[in-house]
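One-letter codes give the sequence; the integers encode the fold. A sample entry reads:
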Amino acid sequence: MTLPLYTPSVAVITGATSGFGRETALRLAKLGTKLILTGRRTERLQDLQNQIDTPVHILTQDLCDTAQVASDFANLPDAFQDVDLVINNAGLALGVNALQDKDVADSLTMVDTNIKGLLAVTHALLPGMVARKKGHIINVGSTAGTFSYTGGNTYCGTKAFVNHFSGTLRADLKGKNVRVSCIEPGNIETEFSDVRFKGDKDKADTVYAGYRKMVGSEIADMIVWLATQPEHINVTHLEVMPTDQAPNGLNCTGIDT
């Protein structure tokens, strides 16, 4: 007998102002899920809220400010208290410089957002899920957390954390009826590369040139698929790339002389 799909009651989506965070919000709203949407750009959050018929609570939030994150989630309106889905989507990359050429501020911003921010959100919301014996945390990792590439240094390291943290959190929560999933996308055409290259559109466009690429709506469909599986199913890791993208092994280079 096939059990019915799960419909989340209250979902938190970080980084909901663009890309597949935004697309996921639109899809969950169609299921009737109440949404807590976070991001740094208030106008975009309000615009998204105006497109959604289900109840929405928006939080203008910088994940680097972990004290603010904790306070925001400790003071949710009553109607949004029983969060049963957290989508840790917010994250960024800055530059493709070798580490010795990278601005340390860029590296620390990636660590603060991709690791500390994700931890702050999870710490704030997980105890309630455990107490209610109901919940699902979906972390957005990356193939960069598994496959290293030149210039990826700090970003790859932060996504390796997300990928492995998800697995160990899953082990911690065995028997608690709280699920943990990590989706690990490859190249997707979103604003990600615009941010990475700090608004240099020409550089950003080269990332997606010459092959069939994925788009944010496709990843959003997969996130919603993860979130709506019956409660007895936990998809732990989902790695997805464009058909035209694949790891190309170890590149060997001679020593500069």
